[in-house]
Each structure stands twice: as C-alpha cells, then as structure tokens.
Amino acid sequence: MGGPATLDKVHDFLHNLFSDSDLMRLPIQPLAAKFIARRRTPQIQDQYNQIGGGSPILHWTEKQGEMMEKILDQISPETAPHKHYVAFRYVDPLTADTVKQMKEDGIKRAVVFTQYPQYSCSTTGSSLNELYRCLKKSDPENDIKWSVIDRWNTHPGFVKAISQKIKAKLQEYPSAERDHVVLLFSAHSLPMSIVNRGDPYPAEVAATVDHVIRHLKVRNPHRLVWQSQVGPSAWLGPQTGDAIKKYGEMGKKNLLLVPIAFTSDHIETLFELDIEYGKEAHESGVTGYKRSESLNDDPTFVQAMADIVKGHLDAGQITSPLMALRCPACNNDKCAEQKEFFASQKL
Length: 347
Ligand SMILES: C=CC1=C(C)c2cc3[nH]c(cc4nc(cc5[nH]c(cc1n2)c(C)c5CCC(=O)O)C(CCC(=O)O)=C4C)c(C)c3C=C
Ligand SMILES: [Fe+2]
Ligand SMILES: [Fe+2]
Known about the structure:
The chain is of the alpha/beta class. The two termini are 27 Å apart. The longest helix has 22 residues, at 29-50. Strand 1 (109-113), helix 5 (124-138) and strand 2 form a beta-alpha-beta unit. The chain has helices at residues 10-19, 29-50, 57-75, 95-104, 124-138, 156-170, 192-195, 201-216, 240-249, 267-283, 299-315, 333-343, and strands spanning 109-113, 145-149, 182-188, 222-227, 254-259, 288-291. Helix 4 (95-104) crosses helix 5, helix 6 packs antiparallel against helix 11 and helix 9 (240-249) runs parallel beside helix 10. It has three domains: 7-50, no CATH class; 57-153 and 300-343, Rossmann fold; 156-291, Rossmann fold, CATH 3.40.50. Residues 121, 125, 197, 326-327, 330, 332, 335 line the site of one fe (ii) ion (FE2).
C-alpha cells in the first residue's frame, strides 16, 4: 500500500487511495476521490504530524528488503544474486515506476511478494491488478516471468516473530498479573460489502491469531478486534476502540494490543493504536495498556521473509492454490483477468 513519507505527500496518497475502485467503489469516483481527498487531507496530515511527520513504511520496507536479500543469497545460492524492488500502490515508489526500472535493469525473473500476510481483494488483489495493468503497458512481450507469493498468514517464522514480540511485552507486566493480561489482536477492518462477497481476509486473519495463540502456549484470554473503519458504511466489528472501552468498563486493567495484519509501523500502529486508543484506554480505566512492537527489522521476521521466498522458489509454484479461486460473489472482472495472467506464467 505504502504511506506518505512527508506531509506534502498526504493529499496525493489519499487521492490515489480513494480513486482505487478495487479498494472501494464510489459514485462518480474521479470526482468523489478529488473531493474526499481534499477534505480529508488536513485531518490526516495532523495525524502523520503527530507520528513524526510521515509514514515510516518506506524506511522499514527498504530495510526488510535489504536484510532479506542478504539472507536469501546465503540460503538459496542457486538463485543468487537476489535484488528487492519496492512497489507501492498509492505513493512513490509506485508500481508503474518500479516495473519500468525492472525492465531497464534487464530483470527476467521476479517474485511478487505481497507484504500483506493475509489476502484481501481490496489490498493484495488491488496491488496485483495494478501490477497486471502496468505490465500490459511496460512489458507487453512478457519478458519478465512472474510468480506470486499471495499470502503467508500461517507461516511458522511469521507466527514465531509475532509470538516473540508478545512474549517480550508480557514481561513488562508485574508477574502476578501477567497471566491475566487480555491479548487484543487488532487488524484493519473491511467493509461488510467486501466481507459478504466472500473475501478471504477475515478468516485468514483469524487463522494467524489461532496459530500465534497455539505457538505462545499461554492461557491469557484473547480476542480479535478490527480497527481503522472509514466512512458511514457497515464494517466488520467489533471495533478496536469500542472493545478497549468496554473491557475497561468491565474492569479489565491490562490490555495488550497486538497488530496482526501489519508487518511494520505506520499511522495505524503509531497514531491509532498508540495515541488515539491509548488515550481512550486511559479514560476507560485501563491502566496497563500496551502494544506489542511491530515486526519492522526484527531478525526473526526477516529470516521468515527469506524462508518464505526460498520455500516458494523451491516449490516451483506460480501462485498458491487459493489464488485461483475467486470470491463467490466477486463482481470485479479485473480480478479474473489478473489471476489468469499470473496463472499462465511459464517459468
Ligand atoms: C491489512 C491491511 C489493510 C486493509 C485490509 C485495508 C483496507 C482498507 N483500507 C481502507 C481505507 C484507508 N486505509 C488507509 C490507510 C491504511 N490502510 C492500511 C492497511 C489496510 N487497509 C495501512 C497500512 C494504512 C496506512 C498507511 C501508512 O500510514 O503507511 C487510509 C488513509 C488514512 C485515512 O484516511 O484514514 C484509508 C482511507 C479501505 C476503504 C479498506 C477496505 C476496503
Ligand atoms: Fe486501509
Ligand atoms: Fe474478489
């Protein structure tokens, strides 16, 4: 997805985001996107200002890419040298520019590695649709051969990395209270219209939570809650903010928030979880409100990234078997074309 690295990029980020009909459908979308982006910019700039003046997502993605390619060169010498490229959906480096750069660099074989662990048509699906459109323009002869890592929500290395972050944060609670801390796994929500199309994301997020809980081998109570709703339509709940408030009112003093669908820090963790909900938690009597650290450049996580790519290359797969299956009520024909394109790659 990407995020605006500086405040002057917030408007264009929002404009590109609200223009994306794979993410959301708006009436007279080009006009509506212009209007909403302009109206929303000051509020979102203020939020980015409070987290240091921009999204750190490019910084973390570059760092993860650099660390991952070094590990890959060691564990998969037969496919070395490895080189990472970043393709964001709504800000620089945009997918179109990255594809042009790869063509200029003479790349012949590429792995699309979504950085969303769980698949949603609105996120990974949108990014793959955009990549497909860019390839039709910039690589019509299909010079670059592609395969796709479309989801990795239960990969053991990913599960281990999240679990380690939770364990480390649990240590900060007094030992007498540690076993009773409520683990609140928080993921970005989805509009119910997308959930009801049969989008796989909610079930894949729940599967990640289940694997983490089994890996942790703790008896703490836990719940999965959903954050970052935008606009008036119905979204998948319960909302993270409401859950924090209710648990506070129920006398739960210790809540440990765990971001479960993001791999690095950005506005959803640094502003929403830390600042906005942190304040609400305090007001609701939650004295032990903490958040487990994002994965960022965590060595266990970056090792997992490299293992995921190596496993993918060794298996010789083009996509996961799940990629071929469209949502039962999918109404986006672009999804079908894109899926056929990637499935037809000959390595
Ligand atoms: C798993 C991750 C994400 C899903 C699923 C997702 C769905 C989704 N998002 C919007 C609307 C917005 N998202 C915005 C920011 C944003 N979203 C994600 C992740 C997911 N979104 C991230 C990581 C970010 C932050 C980027 C950064 O700071 O680096 C925004 C912009 C902020 C705002 O205006 O509140 C919007 C808008 C929809 C409609 C949607 C599902 C259809
Ligand atoms: Fe979002
Ligand atoms: Fe779909």
